[in-house]
């Protein structure tokens, strides 16, 4: 997929959208071999650039044990930050995740 080359160039410059898109590409395996570890790394880099959508994807990977070890505490902590930024999806994740601590 030729587009991956251009996304990679943008990602190498720290473009959060390109990092997010590469994370999605590797997570789904569209046009490349599916690679959850690579996907998680791209999502993490996008998160460090302030991309909330990437945080949601990374949280789902932690929840589903895809490429990263399942870690509800990490999801809860990251959702808390995203909730402060008024991200509705993260509020839902935080509510679901907090129930894991009370059971």
Q: What's the CATH H-level superfamily name?
A: Tetratricopeptide repeat domain
The CA-CA distance between the termini, in Å, is 45 Å
CATH architecture: Alpha Horseshoe
**What's the assembly state of these chains?**
single chain
Order of helices and strands: HHHHHH
Instruction: State which percent range the strand residues make up.
Output: under 5%
Arithmetic mean of pLDDT: 78
Low confidence ranges? none
CATH class categorisation: Mainly Alpha
Could you say which structural class the secondary elements and strand pairing correspond to? mainly alpha
Largest sheet: none
What would the CATH topology be?
Answer: Serine Threonine Protein Phosphatase 5, Tetratricopeptide repeat
How many strands in all? 0
- Overall tally of structural domains: 1
Helix content: over 70%
- Shape estimate: flat
Offer a few descriptive terms.
103 residues, 6 helices, single chain, Serine Threonine Protein Phosphatase 5, Tetratricopeptide repeat, mainly alpha
Summarize the structure.
The protein has 103 residues and is mainly α. 76% of the residues lie in helices and 0% in strands. The termini are far apart.
